[in-house]
Amino acid sequence: MTKKNKAPSSRTPKILADSKFSPLSFEVVKSLKKAGYQAYLVGGCVRDLLVGIKAKDFDVSTNATPEQVRKIFRSSRIIGKRFRLVHVFSRNELIEVSTFRADASKTQNNDGLVKDTDGKILRDNVWGSLEEDCVRRDFSINALYFDPVENVLHDFHNGIEHIQKKSIVSIGDPMLRFDEDPVRSLRAIRFSSKLGFKISGDIKEAIYKKAPLLGNISNARLFDEFCKIFLSQKASDNFEKLQSFGALKYLINTKKYPVDSFGLRFQQAALVNTDNRLKSDQSVTPGFLLAALMWPKLIDETNEEGTLNLKKFFRSMDRIIREQQELTAIPRKFHGYIKDIWSLQLKLETRLGHQPYKILNHPRFRAAYDFLLLREEAAKDDQGIGSWWTEFQKVNRPRKIEMLQILRDSRKGPVEKKFGFLEELS
Ligand code: ATP
Ligand code: MG
């Protein structure tokens, strides 16, 4: 393993030299270098700083093996099977430290690098040099290595030029690179939305061609990618791009809804809402978004000639969640959450007897109410149920009693089992 780096180094852009990298990432690079290893900040943190956006996390790449890294940092642990790396952490930061990988084409018949018959890499744990590691990165803009101690930048694949041209360029033939790891196609889409970059023609073609390979990726990995794609402030853009590349169906259990349908309008409303919440620092959860993205399907499949079949509605909830789980794992805590939001939609509409008081205290009330408002917006529904709940939350007890009385009077006679889903069912 080379300890001295002989690779050419580009002139370091001023923005990097001036940048304040996270304290822990700087410490990790410094300690590894002090111990005699090569170490660089790499990937998204270098790329994002050059683009002028705040880096989300900091990754370090080194020629020290995971065990050697582990020995240097007391607060660290080795993780991963398919791709072993070390997490170095402090109280409020976590740095991923990965060991340089060897060139895949030169490491056949080695236990550390295992591919399936389609060329997909199942295990990738053969160590190599900086130059080799670089070739293993997905896109040129992600293959920039920066040493913040000595202010040295390595750019072997013209990443800087591609950042200037706002272009996503594959390292090597994208058809082969997506065979090795189909998730790279989702990453290309995600980076193009995040950075406002265009995807090169050969990558576009490879996304169309190789999207079906996403069907063989573990649902746990696709859930991680789902969160990165949709909890990113670019959910709406990503949704459209994934749809146009034919890749959406590998992430979401939904039908393709026509442009002016309730289904698409509602999904878009939920995506835009998620983007806006993130932009204004409000909390978001993948559970809410999943509930929204699958709702049109639930309604479609339980609608019988314009009426909601309640029995079918409740029976279908588990099945629809199960189908989604075949695509992306859904952490257990979200199963109940999603079903609560769905079933509360019925109760929010009927508002029978004293139920509205109980509903207000339901732990999922707020989420279910937000969901109702989005449904109304998408259904262009003006029955005013959303605003009824807006008022009911705010007013004092006597007015609450009055509101319920008015509701009872307006119903005249026995309460009909009628739900206001008519717009959504048409
Ligand atoms: P972000 O953190 O904003 O999602 P990132 O580029 O840092 O973007 P990470 O998943 O954190 O993405 O990965 C760090 C780096 O590791 C990437 O920049 C890239 O160089 C490399 N990398 C990650 N995933 C892959 C992959 N599937 N194939 C090839 N290289 C990858
Ligand atoms: Mg990163």
Search tags:
alpha+beta, elongated, Beta Polymerase, domain 2, cca-adding enzyme, domain 2, 426 residues
Describe the structure.
There is one protein chain. The protein has 426 residues and is of the alpha+beta class. The chain is 51% helix and 11% strand. The protein has helices at residues 14-17, 23-34, 44-51, 66-72, 130-136, 159-164, 174-180, 183-195, 201-210, 219-230, 235-244, 262-279, 286-302, 310-327, 332-350, 355-361, 365-379, 385-394, 397-411, 422-425; strands at residues 39-42, 59-62, 76-79, 85-89, 94-99, 113-115, 121-124, 144-147, 152-155, 167-168, 198-199, 303-304, 307-308. Strand 6 (113-115) and strand 7 (121-124) form a beta hairpin. Helix 8 packs parallel to helix 10 (219-230). The structure holds adenosine-5'-triphosphate and magnesium ion. Adenosine-5'-triphosphate is lined by residues 43-44, 56-57, 59, 137-138, 142-143, 181, 183-184, 228. Adenosine-5'-triphosphate binds at residues 43-44, 56-57, 59, 137-138, 142-143, 181, 183-184, 228.
